[in-house]
Write a structure and sequence with these properties.
The chain has about 300 residues and is of the alpha/beta class. Helices cover about 35% and strands about 20% of the residues.
Length: about 300
């Protein structure tokens, strides 16, 4: 029973238990063509983005270490070129646990400076009462930035832009400007309730602001690669943003009225959204409790 609760609670933060308690042979890496030279890989963990072409491969996020061989196999079907860059959208384990394996191939790892700080030391995720071990030097970003960084490769202008205190304090959005594609990292969970990491200085208002920024730069033809969930678009990202605005409004009102967490749970204030969004890794009540903590911490 304890193992079941751990699995449900940690889901994509399956950390060490993934390697020991999950048969990696069961995980299938699926490849979706997003645009010419742009792909999305899905396995277990955050969605991987790829730019492939004559200049090599730019990879976004690395999922779990036990999956690296399968991920490389999927990439090799798209390109015989080496992975040149690995960009981390943020520090969370389900997006960076494969860094060490990729780094051993002398790939340049790129991330916001806060990502390197968190990956360099043991980090604690309050919502799951979980300590995540630091990565070794080979898995750490060797190129960091504070605001944005740009790449010109594979006939693509790639812009990586930092978003302050959104899902964490180190989130980046990646725009493929020529292909009209954006990878949002975990600023966007498509189809289910998101996780916002209070212990990494995440903020609901920051996620909303980041989503609004993305929406200001895309159009109805833009392909949106979310941090989790299926390939998306402007309409679905707009729904997600509007949902967070409404949930944030409701939670702030209840907190301002002096309601305790127990009272808020009993009221089920997100009940009308639970059926549509509560089927992901965070069950409705767990999401509600985490959301409460994030909103209250940032008041």
């Amino acid at each position: 029973m304890k193992l079941l609760k751990l699995f449900l609670g940690l889901a994509f933060f399956a950390t060490i238990s993934f390697a020991h308690n999950h048969d990696k042979k069961e995980v299938v890496i699926t490849t979706t063509k997003v645009a010419n030279g742009i792909y999305m890989l899905q396995g277990q963990g955050g969605n991987i983005g790829l730019s492939v072409g004559e200049d090599g491969v730019l990879m976004i996020d690395s999922q779990f270490a036990p999956l690296t061989k399968k991920i490389k196999g999927a990439i090799s079907k798209l390109s015989q070129k080496d992975i040149k860059y690995l960009v981390n959208t943020h520090w969370h384990y389900d997006h960076t646990n494969g860094n060490e394996n990729i780094g051993k191939d002398k790939v340049t790892i790129v991330a916001h400076e806060n990502v390197k700080k968190r990956l360099s030391e043991d980090s604690f995720i309050k919502a799951f009462n979980k300590t995540v071990p630091a990565l070794s030097k080979v898995g750490l970003p060797t190129v960091t930035f504070t605001d944005k960084i740009e790449f010109s490769m594979n006939n693509e202008n790639i812009e990586v832009i930092y978003q302050n205190n959104a899902h964490t304090d180190g989130d980046s959005i990646i725009f493929f400007k020529n292909a009209n594609v954006v990878h949002t990292g975990d600023i966007f969970f498509n189809g289910f309730y998101p996780f916002i990491d209070e212990s990494s200085k995440g903020d609901v208002d920051g996620v909303i602001k980041a989503a609004e920024y993305i929406l200001s730069r895309i159009d109805d033809n833009t392909k949106v690669i979310p941090g989790h969930g299926k390939l998306s678009n402007k309409k679905e990202l707009t729904y997600y943003k509007d949902t967070l605005i409404e949930l944030n409004k409701r939670m702030k009102k209840l907190i301002s009225e002096g309601k305790t967490l127990e009272e808020i749970v009993a009221l089920k204030p997100f009940d009308d959204y639970d059926k549509k969004l509560g089927g992901g890794f965070l069950p409705p009540e767990k999401f509600l409790k985490i959301f409460y903590g994030v909103v209250k911490a940032n008041q």
